[in-house]
Specification:
Elements: H1 10-17, H2 21-25, E1 28-32, E2 37-43, H3 56-74, E3 79-90, E4 97-108, E5 112-120, E6 126-138
């Protein structure tokens, strides 16, 4: 059974995010499951740190993007979601290719949501684990 209260396609979410940091980094939502959302991000000059590895901050942007989009889809109409806290553990370095993040809910409440985001490389090796806590507020 789907947890989503709002319906969107990956294409709609990508269009929505196009003119933001998400689009600048090349993050693309790829799939929406019953209770999960996935996206990819290229590992290239835009997402590297100076030594040529994936920047930890880029991984956090991917994680927060996935958790924020998922929270928006899981929240009731006439609400807006804001990140309260994000943390990330960087487990493995990556120099090129793509990474894929998958967001899954830990808690989807009416005022607070918590999302687990796992980011893996092209060989399905874990690169980063992250948790995002989101506040859900009524639109004013």
């Amino acid at each position: 059974m789907s947890i989503w209260r709002k319906i969107a396609t990956p294409e709609q979410l990508n269009q929505f995010s196009q003119n933001s940091l998400v689009g600048l980094l090349g993050i693309e939502v790829t799939e929406i499951g019953e209770d999960w959302l996935s996206a990819t991000m290229p590992v290239n000059a835009k997402t590297h740190q100076p030594l040529g590895f994936l920047h930890g901050g880029a991984s956090v942007v991917l994680a927060e993007t996935l958790g924020s989009l998922a929270s928006h889809l899981a929240a009731e109409e006439n609400t807006i979601c804001f990140g309260l806290e994000v943390n990330a553990n960087h487990i493995k370095s990556v120099k090129d290719g793509f990474v894929t993040g998958i967001a899954r809910p830990i808690r989807v409440g009416t005022s607070t949501q918590v999302w687990d985001i796992q980011i893996s490389d092209e060989h399905q090796q874990l690169v980063c684990v992250s948790r995002l806590t989101v506040a859900v507020k009524p639109v004013r």
